[in-house]
């Protein structure tokens, strides 16, 4: 492969490293590795080594980087985190490394001290900009393992003026809920079981992965972190963790009752995410008329989130039919027909790992 045609896109998170291998503007492969960055930079090094083993072509490529890992409590502040992660990448990677800084463009390592704030947690902006360039108008709903991004775009540009996590938490564009790592106690103080509301134990007894695993919606390939109790991920162990949330044991109810309990947690999270979508659409009048673009390992929730957001009373007017739904991995990402493992498999991973694909595509467009 000609060196100038290879771009590797990176999304360095606090829990995963996601990477995309692109050649000639087409995605050849996408991968994700668990990375407990909060425990030390050596865990990032391990993930980078795994990428080297998968793609020897890394030595020939240019690198496009975005990150959210600077938020982990490994670092004293976000600036330190951006510089530390960028330094680790610079030491590990051959070839030019460019950092996505959103409205500030692309920045080298030497420029990061002056532009670190634009680089910090900008992965959502990369995905939204890429979707906007391809589709023009719509709303991105990226439900990841830990967070959800809800971003409106119009006329090929991101509509929101919010850029920082703090601004986006205030606007509803960042909802700190995901399909894998969210502690269930974060979903609210009470939950119904056998028709009776119960207060929830505010302990790290179970996560959203337990809900979607029991319901059969979570792909095991996306369930990469240990369970809350470091125990098995089979159905009996999953029911045991869910039971603890209301002070019971799995033997205190039937399997069908625990399944219904999981559905109650699912409905709670759908409502939280729908509230974020309602808030974003209320500030973007064009949004109900454009497509909703799904992404993330929790994309299986997007259809119901959209129906709930647009069909419930509130600040948004009711609509007769929800917007057309598109998938980032299928309708935005440009996957090569000869992609590693087959084009369909790579589309599915591009759907899950959208920001690393987006930064690669955006850098490719700049060349």
Short overview:
The protein is an alpha/beta fold and 367 residues long. It contains twelve helices and 14 strands.
Would you kindly provide a written description of the structure presented here, covering whatever features stand out?
The protein has helices at residues 42-54, 78-92, 112-119, 123-135, 165-171, 208-214, 235-244, 255-282, 302-311, 328-332, 343-352, 354-366, and strands at 6-12, 16-23, 26-34, 62-67, 97-100, 106-107, 138-143, 148-154, 157-158, 174-175, 190-193, 196-199, 292-295, 325-327. The chain has 367 residues and is α/β, with parallel strands linked by helices. It has three domains: 3-125 and 332-366, Nucleotidyltransferase, domain 5; 136-179 and 270-328, conserved archaeal protein q6m145 (Nucleotidyltransferase, domain 5); 190-266, no CATH class. The protein has a six-stranded mixed beta sheet, with helices on both faces. Helix 1 packs parallel to helix 2, helix 6 (208-214) crosses helix 8 and helix 8 (255-282) packs across helix 9.
